[in-house]
Amino acid sequence: MLIGAAGAGKSTLAGRLFPAESVLSSDAFRKLVSGDEGDQRATKTAFAMLHRELDRRLAHGLTTVVDATSVTPSARRGLLHRAAAHRVPAFALVLDLAPELVFARNTTRPGHVVPEPAVRRQLADLRASTGDGVLEAEGFAAVHVVRTAAQLDALSTRALIERSGG
Questions:
Q1: What is the pTM of this model?
Q2: Nearest to residue 142, comparing CAs of 123, 161, 158?
Q3: At what angle are helices 43-59 and 73-85 packed, to 10 degrees?
Q4: CA-based, 20 to 30 A from 46: which of 38, 56, 64, 103?
Q5: Is 38 within the bounds of a domain?
Q6: 71: CB partners within 8 A, 6+ apart
Q7: Residue 32 domain-assigned?
Q8: Residue 128 sits in which domain range?
């Protein structure tokens, strides 16, 4: 599960590290539902579709990356429940970059720019819900936190596997 505010680089990272068919993007599901990846009115239906596809992929033993902000425990709960139901370990990759960098990247997002107040809320939620041991207590098998652009740029699937004990 990728965790981070809009503009942190989750989609770019997912596209760089994982095959496209392995990535379930909340923005892509919003676009399927409404034609606009930023249409928040489509969120409930988009996540219902994302959850169904996640269940299908996990039932078939397919590695799956969920690309959504997931900055609150309630946003992560359903995803963690599905992983547990399929007896699949869930891993968190947290993009906890400096707010200035997130705001700058958000303004250059392909598709749509998320309003700054929403990004500020996401950053506050991220900090509140991802302190020491919080994610592990939620049930993640491993948690990886990226705090700098250099760490993000250097990240590789091999490094993730090694850090996860695989």
A1: 0.91
A2: 161
A3: 30
A4: 103
A5: no
A6: 3, 4, 5, 122, 123, 125, 126, 129, 130
A7: no
A8: 2-22+65-163
Structural domain count, the chain: 1
Backbone angles phi, psi at 9, to 5 degrees: 110, 15
Residue 34, domain member (yes or no)? no
DSSP letter (8 states) at residue 114:
P
Q: Which helix (H) or strand (E) segment is 2 a member of?
A: strand 2-3
CATH number, domain with residue 10: 3.40.50.300
CB 148 within 8 A of CB 41: no
Token pair listed for 33: 């539902």
Q: Is residue 105 part of a domain?
A: yes
Q: Kindly report the backbone phi and psi dihedral angles of residue 122, in degrees, each rounded to the nearest multiple of 5, phi listed first.
A: -60, -40
Q: What is the pLDDT of residues 121-158, one digit of tens each?
A: 999 999 998 878 899 999 999 999 999 999 998 888 76
Per-residue pLDDT for 162 more than 80?
A: no
